[in-house]
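BUG-225 | component: ligand-complex export | severity: low

The export step for adenine jobs runs without errors, but we want the raw record kept on the ticket for reference. Input record follows.
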Amino acid sequence: MRIDIITLLPRLLDSPFSHSILKRAQDKGLAEVVVHDLREFSTSKQRQLDDYAYGGGAGMVMMIEPIDLCISKLKSERDYDEVIYMTPDGELLNQGMANELSLKGNLILLCGHYKGVDERVREHFITREISIGDYVLSGGELAAAVVADSIIRLLPGVLSDETSALTDSFQDDLVAPPVYTRPAEYKGMEVPEVLLSGHQAKIEEWRYEKSVARTRARRPGMLDE
Ligand code: ADE
């Protein structure tokens, strides 16, 4: 899978993709993440990327031309499954969407800033809009990193058995059960007996019951669905 991220602030994305699982996925050739600096596609002398909103009002709007040039260049090089705009009024990201996107081949993620992009970008170039939650970030970069992380960790071969995505919260419409590690007793706080019993069927039953109870307490809507 290849993910191209278009941004005004490429450096903001250095860190999330340079560590741990996301780095390993790229080192193994399972995912390629390419960050594009929108400034390189500005045609004006001042390297302008935003301008005042027609009709007035506070806040700048990202101009259509540099975005068009960048997306068109990428599209001339390969086919893309989706051109995604990161925006707080997009479709809310959830595990189902991450699963679905992890089956795609090439994705573009466009990060917004200021008041957002010229509406014509959304109408003509964008195939999908994603929000990571009902709050406003200063830009789409952190949201793009969240989307990319949620996708890349699902690609076959990225996670080892120990970290398998199949037992994650939400993957089977339940949140994950509690987990414990050594020591079995710490300052009087004990690990539930059943987990030390070695009785695998009982352990699975306990985990399932805890998952259901936790889902009922924390995400009752998931059980209704
Ligand atoms: N850009 C600003 N806020 C955002 C959000 N909540 N989700 C996606 N992109 C955003």
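Assignee comment: Attached the raw record above. The pocket of adenine is lined by residues 86-88, 112, 131-133, 135-137, 140, 143 (CB under 6 Å).
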